């Protein structure tokens, strides 16, 4: 059974194979997809370097954090010490591993509660699509979805799970979307959507929902070709006029 430590180190070595971008937020999305795949295949617990409580206590003691807001993760404190997303992610990995050594913890197991239950994969995805802020944070985007699906895909590889129908659909969707946006053929849909919505995070997320729905309904790829860009442009102009 692969450990979180192994996952973190391989992401650090080759992030583009795992994350939509080298960003701690996208690792959380990746991890969420990974856990969903485990739950879908009957695995009820996951290996972690150390529990969130242990990591929080380690950071609190090491950096003498006092009066930290209770609704913010302690690892967010690491942002104060870094100047780029890559530095933050690298420091996060480093501190996780140091904390594990300091506390003399090789690996811990955590029960999977988030995706437990009898709901189908399709129903679980609908919940995520309906309340993305609850799963990915307020700045949810197509990039979060990209990392989320990559996490699911890597869990299938790591555990030799049978390839889910979801990824057959996503592969076909990529081909469909390449026809719609031929300028970006060869690049993943989640990056292209961020560009076509002028880097408006939420609109890029909604762009996926709209286009994936069109794809599942069998619409041609040129259906509503410019609509996502128009929506983003109008949103930006509206904000500028306020």
Summarize the structure.
With 242 residues, the chain is mostly helical. It is 59% helix and 3% strand. It has a domain at 164-242.
Q: What is the overall silhouette? A: globular
Helix-strand string: HHEHHEHHHHHHH
Report low-confidence residues grouped into runs of 5 or more: none
Beta-sheet strand percentage? under 5%
Rg of Cα set: 19 Å
Number of helices: 11
Instruction: State the major sheet.
Output: 2 strands, antiparallel
Oligomer: single chain
Total strand segments: 2
What's the rounded overall pLDDT mean? 87
Across the major sheet, the strand order is 1-2
**Kindly, what is the distance between the CA atoms of the first and last residues, rounded to a whole number of angstroms?**
53 Å
Estimated helix fraction: 55-70%
* Class inferred from helices and paired strands: mainly alpha
Explain this structure.
By secondary structure, this protein is mainly alpha-helical. 59% of the residues lie in helices and 3% in strands. The chain has a domain at 164-242. The mean pLDDT is 87.
Q: Any chance you could write out the topology, listing elements then pairs?
A:
Blueprint: H1 4-13, H2 24-40, E1 45-48, H3 52-62, H4 85-102, E2 108-111, H5 121-130, H6 132-136, H7 142-158, H8 165-180, H9 189-196, H10 201-216, H11 227-241
Antiparallel strand pairs: 1-2
């Amino acid at each position: 059974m692969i450990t979180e430590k192994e996952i973190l180190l391989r992401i650090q070595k080759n992030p583009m194979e795992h994350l939509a971008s080298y960003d701690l937020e996208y690792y959380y999305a990746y991890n969420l997809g990974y856990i969903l795949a485990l739950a879908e295949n009957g695995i009820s617990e996951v290996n972690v370097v150390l529990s969130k409580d242990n990591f929080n206590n380690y950071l609190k003691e090491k950096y003498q954090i006092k009066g930290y807001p209770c609704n913010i993760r302690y690892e967010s404190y690491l942002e104060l010490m870094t100047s780029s997303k890559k530095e933050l992610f690298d420091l996060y990995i480093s501190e996780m591993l140091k904390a594990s050594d300091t506390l003399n913890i090789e690996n811990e197991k955590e029960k999977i509660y988030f995706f437990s239950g009898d709901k189908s994969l399709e129903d679980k995805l609908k919940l995520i699509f309906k309340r993305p802020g609850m799963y990915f944070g307020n700045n949810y985007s197509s990039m979060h979805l990209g990392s989320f699906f990559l996490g699911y895909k890597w869990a299938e590889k790591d555990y030799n799970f049978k390839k889910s129908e979801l990824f057959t659909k996503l592969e076909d969707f990529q081909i469909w979307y390449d026809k719609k946006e031929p300028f970006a053929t060869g690049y993943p849909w989640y990056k292209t959507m961020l560009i076509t919505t002028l880097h408006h995070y939420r609109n890029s997320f909604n762009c996926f929902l709209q286009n994936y729905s069109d794809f599942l309904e069998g619409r041609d790829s040129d259906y509503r070709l410019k609509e996502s860009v128009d929506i983003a442009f109008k949103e930006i102009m509206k904000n500028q006029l306020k």
